Amino acid sequence: MTATLTPEVKEEHRPEEPPSSRVRLRRLWDRLTPYGFLSPTLVLLIILMVTPIVMVIGYSLMDRVITAPESNFVGFENYMQVLTDPAFANAVGNTIYFAGISVVAHFVLGIAFALMLNSPILGHKTKAIFRTVYILPWLFTIAIVAVLWRMLLSPNGIVNYLVETLGFSAGSVEWLSDPSLALPAVTFINIWSGYPFFMVSLLAGLQGISRDLYEAATIDRAGPIKQFLHVTIPQLKPIIISMALLDFIWTTQQFALIWMTTGGGPIDRTEMVSTYTYKLAFSTYDFSVASAAAVVVLVLSMVLAFFYVRHQKSRD
């Protein structure tokens, strides 16, 4: 006896018909729609970011670009000239000092002010006043900060007046012209203008820590110092690492503050990698070597950015 398939079974085993052209077009449109929304941003990134980077990399491998009718391919000769230049080594050392001290001081001042503003001892009006005062340096542009502190630190400025009045010095101090004081002076200015970034971020992190953790630590007889070390710092650790990496990247690329206060002087004591590259390009008009220095800075920044992105992914 042979078995016959029922109409229902035949319907189930019937092969599916291929989608019509209208359905395929609709699916293609749905897939391309997100890229259509992203296309303006992608075009701007290619024009304003990718294209200049490619051009600078190309310039760094050539000789006498822009200043000569013809340029020759020299390979990595410009990179060797930059990396063996004592002025570049000096600029790297000053940049590391400038950025390292600034980041540490930003964290110390930021966590101190954030703890004070988060303390229940202060009233709401007092906290509002202190928040306004402490965040003021962050509201000024770099140009205003540079001009302000050049006036304050000038030989006839208020800082020298206070120093002489209090008896710390018998005469005016050349804060921005003395080779031994210029680098600490610009570092102090950068610390003053940048600590509110840490303060605001850490204050937001402190307000997000559960009070239950502190109550549990109090039950375990942990004092304020132990609570700070074993509760506050571990809870703020992801924020601290992220901000430290970002602040270090931004500080190593600081140009306007240095250029408008000391110009990299005196005697290259405040020369940074950014001002070193700028002088190569627009003082000596050696755009090839300046491009090589810019590429070196780009590579170092990408390394720092890699660690930042890696930390963000592990945090997520």
From TrEMBL:
Subcellular location(s) per record = Cell membrane
Q: Which domain of life is it from?
A: Bacteria
Locations of Basic and acidic residues compositional bias? 8-19
Q: Where are the transmembrane segments?
A: 35-62, 96-117, 129-152, 181-204, 287-309
Q: Which UniProt keywords apply?
A: Cell membrane, Membrane, Transmembrane, Transmembrane helix, Transport
Q: Which Pfam families match?
A: BPD_transp_1
Instruction: Indicate yes or no for the key word Transmembrane.
Output: yes
User: Residue limits of the ABC transmembrane type-1 domain?
Assistant: 92-308
The record describes its membrane topology as: Multi-pass membrane protein
Identify the CDD domains for this entry: TM_PBP2 (cd06261)
Tell me the segments the record calls region Disordered.
1-20
Which family, according to UniProt? Belongs to the binding-protein-dependent transport system permease family.
Q: What is this protein called?
A: Sugar ABC transporter permease
Q: Which organism is it from?
A: Demequina zhanjiangensis
